[in-house]
């Protein structure tokens, strides 16, 4: 009985094997293009892929001189919060974080290359992996994948997200990036401050040199012309001349009186000589003032031109000094600073990779690819049969 019952079973085994082989052959392309990649993805994400921790921080760039309106509108509230004042500076900081300069600084301060090359990380995720050589450019491409710096337009804050294989590494890299960003803001402030103040200081220097040159020109003119102040000296000479003219007029009146009353008075010749001497002195004083070549009046025009130049130079120096004070105050008002809204966190659990979702993505992608190819082949076969 046992032999009789065993014979049909052994006869069915080849039939079952051939049926299974036929089923496999019929679905071999589906297995190769869909089932196999999905199975490999399940093996990788389930047993090989390393955990990745994500550290996040947020910041804004503010200015202490930001205008605040008393009217309670949405636009004013946004401006009061400091979200629009440092928009340009925020974009500059984000551009810096995504740059090669930031990566170079991270290599020096945070040993970023070592942190992305741990032995416990899987061969596909760490740097350098199968697809990366240990060059700086490849490290930069890897850095772009692991560090995300963007602007949240809804919240008005800048976000830095750093991925790493340990929570501490993600935190350290994120914190270092924030420190580097603060240093960049300080350098930008120093550049703006030094540029504006340097220009104002240069104007003050030029104005001071102009005042100095004007004073030197006046001193040289005084030494050359042997005059201290032509205007005052001319006034002094004219005052002396006027005094002598008054004295001569008095003597002349006395002389005329003597001639009428005592024509033979022996004092008349002496009085007449005295009047003549005073007239000579008056003429001498007048010649000092209005002489053709050596008179004070001929020298007064050049001196007044020098005085006008000195006055303009002094006014320019005063204006330049005021501009320097204003430039320093303006530079102080235009200072921007980075305010940390959210400090970098030390994640307590890995957020990546999303293993189940990634497996589903691989399955969906390969399945779509399979159906696209299948429909393409079916279409070709149908056209070939019609032909």
Task: Please outline the helices and strands.
Layout: H1 2-26, H2 28-48, E1 53-62, H3 74-80, H4 87-97, H5 100-109, H6 112-115, H7 136-146, E2 147-152, E3 157-164, H8 167-225, H9 230-261, H10 267-290, H11 296-333, E4 337-342, H12 355-386
Antiparallel strand pairs: 1-3, 1-4, 2-3
Structural write-up:
The protein has 387 residues and is of the alpha+beta class. Among the domains are: 51 residues; 127 residues. Helix 5 packs across helix 8, helix 9 runs antiparallel to helix 10 and helix 9 packs antiparallel against helix 11. It is 71% helix and 8% strand. The N terminus is likely disordered. Its main location: membrane.
In short:
This protein is of the alpha+beta class. It is built from 12 helices and 4 strands; from the N terminus they run H-H-E-H-H-H-H-H-E-E-H-H-H-H-E-H. It is found in: Cell membrane.
Features:
387 residues, alpha+beta, 71% helix, transmembrane, protein tyrosine kinase activity, membrane, transmembrane helix, Bact_polysacc_biosynth/exp
Low-confidence stretches: 1-7, 67-84
Strand content: 5-15%
SS summary, helix count: 12
**Estimated radius of gyration:** 50 Å
Distance separating the two termini: 61 Å
Biggest beta-sheet profile: 4 strands, antiparallel
Nearest-integer average pLDDT? 81
Task: Give the oligomeric state of the chains in this entry, treating copies of one chain as homo and distinct chains as hetero.
Answer: single chain
Helix/strand/pairing category: alpha+beta
Q: Total number of β-strand segments?
A: 4
Written as H for each helix and E for each strand, in order along the chain, the element string is: HHEHHHHHEEHHHHEH
Sheet with the most strands: spatial strand order: 2-3-1-4
The coarse silhouette is rod-shaped
Instruction: Give the fraction of residues assigned to helices.
Output: over 70%
């Amino acid at each position: 009985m046992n032999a009789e019952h065993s014979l049909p079973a052994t006869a069915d085994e080849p039939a079952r094997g051939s049926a299974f082989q036929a089923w496999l052959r019929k679905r071999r392309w589906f297995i190769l293009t869909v089932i196999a990649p999905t199975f490999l993805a399940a093996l990788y994400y389930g047993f090989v892929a390393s955990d990745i921790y994500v550290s996040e921080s947020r910041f804004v760039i503010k200015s202490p001189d930001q205008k605040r309106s008393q009217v309670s509108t949405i636009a004013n509230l946004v401006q009061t919060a400091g979200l629009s004042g440092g928009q340009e500076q925020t974009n500059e900081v984000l551009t810096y974080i995504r740059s090669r300069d930031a990566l170079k600084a991270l290599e020096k301060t945070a040993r970023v290359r070592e942190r992305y090359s741990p032995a416990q990380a899987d061969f596909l995720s760490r740097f350098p992996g199968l697809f990366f050589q240990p060059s700086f450019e490849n490290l930069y491409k890897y850095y772009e994948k692991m560090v995300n710096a963007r602007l949240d337009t809804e919240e008005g804050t800048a976000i830095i997200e750093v991925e790493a294989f340990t929570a501490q590494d993600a935190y350290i890299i994120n914190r270092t990036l924030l420190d580097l960003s603060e240093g960049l803001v300080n350098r930008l402030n120093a550049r703006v401050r030094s540029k504006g103040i340097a220009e104002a200081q240069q104007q003050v220097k030029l104005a001071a040199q102009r005042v100095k040159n004007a004073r030197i020109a006046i001193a040289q003119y005084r030494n050359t012309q042997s005059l201290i102040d032509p205007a005052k000296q001319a006034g002094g000479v004219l005052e002396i001349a006027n005094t002598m003219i008054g004295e001569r007029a008095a003597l002349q009146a006395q002389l005329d009186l003597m001639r009428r009353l005592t024509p033979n008075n022996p004092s008349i010749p002496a009085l007449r000589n005295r009047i003549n001497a005073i007239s000579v002195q008056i003429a001498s004083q007048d010649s000092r003032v209005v002489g053709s070549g050596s008179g004070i009046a001929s020298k007064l025009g050049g001196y007044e031109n020098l005085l006008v130049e000195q006055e303009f130079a002094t006014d320019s120096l005063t204006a330049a000094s005021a501009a320097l004070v204003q430039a320093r105050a303006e530079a102080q008002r235009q200072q921007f600073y980075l305010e940390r809204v959210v400090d970098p966190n030390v994640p307590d659990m890995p957020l990546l990779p999303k293993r189940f979702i990634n497996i589903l993505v691989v399955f969906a992608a390969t399945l779509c690819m399979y159906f696209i190819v299948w429909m393409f082949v079916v279409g070709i076969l149908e056209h070939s049969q019609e032909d």
